[in-house]
Design brief:
- With 282 residues, the protein is an alpha/beta fold.
- The chain contains 8 helices and 13 strands.
- The strands form 3 sheets. Strands 7-6-5-8-9-10-11 form a 7-stranded mixed β-sheet. The protein has a 4-stranded antiparallel β-sheet with strand order 2-3-1-4, covered by helices on one side. A two-stranded antiparallel sheet has the order 12-13.
- A hairpin with a 4-residue loop joins β2 and β3.
- The longest helix is centred in the C-terminal third of the chain and has 24 residues.
Length: 282
């Protein structure tokens, strides 16, 4: 049997689950796991189905058949074979903790993806990319060269047929045009102090204010800086004994964990955008 995952969202009404399960049965598919959620505040329905398809069934054929069901319910949907691993581009600047964590998980098979490239506006992480056997692309950027640098970045995304861009502490603000181009397929990580502690040295700012809780937020990238639909958050309690360097250390761990979870859930089709929020099927 060939494993597939179907995700969908549509206006909520009677008969959706019946139509989906009926289609699967008619095409010889076995539903291994199914999760659903009806959002009363928006009137939309969300569903994720993990299924086994017959060996002779191909994804294109199943998709063509399901299109009639999807059209009748005005669905936004995606059906993908589990064997077809998404192609990922990781972007990073100088801080390498999130990149290092993702590469370790990738090496041990914990990320169902193919990392096709690592891109950076610095060369700091080039040795790490080389050690992992992943092509490294140096894309330096200044204010005057930013439009050209983003064109080169977008060319790389298209050339490599990238399905997901991961900003693993990439310390550059993407233009609105690029955010629109990558909508729904770019994930960023930031410390959860925003918007309270903007700018440089946020953990030092937090120390100066005596915070008791620090954290990290993984979210989809939008033109609104660090304000896209939230996927995952991690937090840790701290107290007056913590020095700024210790807060930075704790923050690195939180950022790595929140980002890796968000990336994996995206790769496994567990996330569906719901306006300014997300539905995450764990």
């Amino acid at each position: 049997m060939a494993e597939h995952v179907l995700t969908l969202s549509c206006p909520d009404r009677i008969g959706i689950v019946h139509a989906v399960s009926g289609f699967m049965a008619d095409h010889g598919c076995n539903i291994v796991d199914s999760q659903q959620f009806g959002d009363l505040s928006t009137g939309r329905f969300f569903m994720r189905v993990h299924l086994d398809a017959p060996p002779d069934a191909d994804t294109a054929g199943l998709s063509a058949g399901f299109d009639a069901v999807a059209s009748s319910f005005d669905m936004q949907w995606l059906l993908r074979a589990s064997a077809d691993k998404p192609r990922v581009l990781i972007m990073v600047s100088r801080q390498d903790h999130c990149l290092n964590d993702l590469l370790y998980r990738y090496r041990i098979g914990a990320l169902p993806a193919v990392i096709v490239a690592i891109a950076s506006n610095h060369t700091t992480c080039e040795p790490m990319a080389a050690a992992a056997g992943i092509p490294f692309h140096h894309l330096p950027v200044t204010a005057p060269t930013k439009p050209d640098q983003e064109r080169r970045l977008l060319h790389l995304v298209r050339e490599q047929s990238v399905d997901l861009v991961v900003l693993a502490r990439y310390m550059q603000i993407l233009s609105g045009e690029l955010c629109t181009e990558l909508a729904g397929r770019a994930i960023n990580i930031h410390h959860s102090f925003l918007p309270g502690f903007k700018g440089a040295r946020p953990y030092h700012q937090a120390f100066d204010r005596g915070v008791k809780l620090i954290g990290a937020t993984a979210h989809y990238v939008t033109a609104d800086l660090d304000d896209g639909p939230i996927i995952e958050q991690e937090v840790a309690r701290v107290d007056h004994t913590e020095v700024p360097e210790r807060l930075v250390e704790i923050g690195r761990d939180l950022e790595s964990l929140a980002l890796s979870r968000a990336v994996r859930w995206h790769l496994e089709q567990r996330i569906i955008v719901n306006g300014d929020k997300t539905v995450v099927f764990r």
